[in-house]
Amino acid sequence: MEKNYKRTLVTCALPYANGPVHIGHLAGVYVPADIYVRYLRMRGKEVLYVCGSDEHGVPITIKARAQGVSPQDIVDKYNRIIKDSFSGLGINFDVYSRTTSKVHHDIASGFFKKLYDEGKFITRESEQFYDDEAKTFLADRYIVGTCPKCGNPNAYGDQCEKCGSTLSPEELIDPRSALSGSAPRKVKTKHWYLPLDKYEPWLRDWILENHKEWKTNVYGQCKSWLDGHLQPRAVSRDLDWGIPVPVEGAEGKVLYVWFDAPIGYISNSKELLPNSWEKWWKDSDTRLVHFIGKDNIVFHCIVFPSMLKAHGDYVLPDNVPANEFLNLEGDKISTSRNWAVWLQDYLQDFPGQEDVLRYVLCANAPETKDNDFTWKDFQQRNNSELVAIFGNFVNRAVVLTQKWFGGKVPGDLKPEAIDRETLSQIPVCRANLEKYLETFHFREALKEAMNMARIGNKYISDTEPWAVAKTDLDRAASILHTCLQICADLAIAFEPFLPFSAEKLRDILRVGIEAGKDFRRGDADGFGDTENCYGPMDGRARHTESCGELRDPMYRLILKWDDLGSESLLPAGHELGEPALLFSKIDDSVVDAQVAKLNATKAANEAAAKAAAAKEVEPQKEEVTFDDFGRMDIRTATVLEAVKVPKTDKLLKLTIDIGIDRRVIVSGIAEYYSPDDMVGKQICILANLKPRTIKGIESQGMILMAKQGDGSMRFITPEEAVCNGAMVG
Questions:
Q1: Residue 412: domain span
Q2: I need a surface site. Which of 252, 352, 388, 473 has the fewest CB within 10 A?
Q3: How much is the pTM?
Q4: Which tens digit of pLDDT belongs to each residue from 596-610?
Q5: Among residues 586, 607, 634, which one ends one of the domains?
Q6: Can you give the C-alpha Rg of the chain in angstroms?
């Protein structure tokens, strides 16, 4: 039997603070979580909504080094960008903090120390790469070398970005440090490990037996990990950016980011509620729900629960509704290739259309498999669904009410069966809507909300009040009365999904919304760090700075979730506001510009790939015998004279002394060397190459050159001066 919890703690995966948020993040984690939290609050549930930036780890140090700034500079920049972008889309957490905060450092250190003191870790010595010049151990990403699978000379110690192979530093050919360029050496180092294998029996029972209700993709991935048997996992690493391991003998070591980051949920809660956070994390009446992407399933379903179990004081996740990945225009979203739609760019390019993105991402949510976002689908869903169905229905109902009844809700003066039959469909939609929301099927839930709009749009088209009013105003009154009740239903049903549009609709209807109460009001400890506190979720899209009761104070008529499906939400005589369009059409030119932007990105990526390929060492030619080589007469020579060949850009005419004679060679090196550079230079030539005529000049031999990775040519010259005509072999 499912437990009836007193409160729900909702966490969202901490976005990594080395870049902005894109639509893949939104569809996978943040939009579904925001819908769920808004819904729970409208049902009057006590909810804490927690997130923050993940600000430690190697990628941040790599970015900082590349930009010549400190890691703190990087995380400060992206913490603000991410936080503001979320707020711009109406995603306002109760707290959005960061893992570089003092509160987090204290909580994470204390968490580690407790497990350490209780003997929950094991220690192991291993050999890791060390850079003597930089005087530091090297993370896998700081080691580069030749990929053993494709020959890419610039593969990383964890992955080859050319062929996509997952690697280890030991597999690289001729590994070198990305910091100094020197060859690293193996040095012994000690680390602490969480023995996940000891928790495997408990995890099998807790997940596979007691959480069969988890989404299929989550349950299946957990089962796969458990069936493969768990191994101890390091909780520390050698790095200078992170939370220092708080034990003796751990100098130069920090908490591994996967251990550090999920503790951020706890520390952020404490930062907001310093005196009452424990009821959210240690009271069995709290339901903990993690919203994450599929790449984080193992950490939130196996690793973090094992950490919490080892600690012993914390509640465990009740559900982890992870989504799959969202692709973009048929290709995998990639931050390194800039193949993404960034939230901050969307908010700038589509002002006032925040809900269109929320709608499309929810409608295409990758809940059971990877899904695809395309700009044409974005346009189609806006124009054919939001504008033509939802917006069209509301606008016609309100405009006709203004025209025929002075903007006041008319009475139900001449009802017919079709009115009651239409309204009777709304409670059915509500029941389905609630079922899908409570089981984390947000795409299906959105369909049910849109079904209400479709019902209203079909009803007004079938009854044609604009025509009826010409001969039977009382009947038109009943039709519009019914339409306006459905409009009020839509203002409730779409609040979790489209908060900006729901607010606009409420303003048109001149009604407020009750979305729960601020559980923190009157809390003995206040609200913690106000800089990281978004303020309460009041059901409205606007960012709020103050805390208070969660209702819209502008109108006397307040709607509640429990009103959804009632037949008399708006009483006769209730005065409406001015009509306004909820949504506007998106023209072809708008989406064409976005597609062009992506095409430019693709072209730039292809050009970069070609440039990178040009820098690679050319593959070895087919084998030759020693006799083949022996037939080549390679000799040293000195350039005596050099002039440009007329009417050419690349050719130089060189007169050279090869010891046995003087001869002329025509060579295409003018783009790399001027004639003045050549005189007196000692070079190597192939002396017995059959002469050929080039631009009317007989060329007797060929200069030996080395082609650089960037395509430029360099002479092969003796290290020390030698006599002309010396044979090379």
A1: 374-516+551-586
A2: 352
A3: 0.81
A4: 999 999 998 888 777
A5: 586
A6: 34
